[in-house]
Specification:
The protein is mainly alpha-helical. The protein is about 70% helix and about 0% strand. The chain has nine helices and no strands.
Length: about 180
């Protein structure tokens, strides 16, 4: 197979990584397989990212950056505090079992133990969700945001791996019950 020169190398690599995660999950994502998918070399990927850890982190950042306008749009949601909270939770949660964005979150969290440099970027991404929730529900405050997001992270992990008996709708109801304006 002839190697090709990518027009937008970094963007195309991140798109291909997300697409591969969507199709096969993280377990099958290797630098070599991603390079084959792109028609380039593993060395070319390493040139851009340095490691699989960095590729995964940058794919998560890329994914969250693409979601940022929708997260910012939450601030214009009208209605009751419960309506605003529901909109936030619906955007926050995985859309389905195997949701690639959430697979990345879970994987990056687990890698921060071995690769502490990942922790800072992950914390910045998490802070954006915190700040959005505090701005969306100022009457709830910082403590509520911390508790809610911890609860949602736990439920999201269960949803993304497909724990039987738990539905997205149930998680939304748990979140709404946690907030008593």
């Amino acid at each position: 197979m002839a190697r090709q020169r990518l027009e937008r190398p970094r963007e195309q690599m991140l798109e291909a990584a997300m697409s591969a995660i969507t199709e096969h999950g993280l377990a099958e994502l290797t630098m070599a397989a991603l390079a084959r998918r792109l028609g380039t070399s593993g060395g070319h990927l390493l040139y851009y990212f340095g490691s699989k850890d960095q590729l995964l982190l940058e794919t998560l950042v890329w994914s969250e950056t693409r979601l940022a306008p929708r997260r910012a749009g939450l601030l214009s949601v009208e209605g009751s505090a419960q309506d605003r909270l529901r909109a936030y939770v619906e955007l926050y949660l995985p859309t389905s079992q195997g949701d690639p964005r959430w697979l990345l979150w879970v994987d990056v969290w687990s890698r921060t133990l071995a690769v502490p440099e990942l922790r800072e970027t992950q914390a910045e991404l998490d802070l954006a969700w915190h700040e959005t929730l505090v701005a969306l529900l100022p009457e709830a405050g910082d403590d509520f945001s911390v508790r809610l997001r911890a609860m949602l992270d736990g439920f999201s992990t269960q949803l993304v791996i497909g724990v039987p008996g738990l539905t997205r709708d149930q998680v939304i109801e748990h979140a709404l019950a946690l907030f008593r304006p």
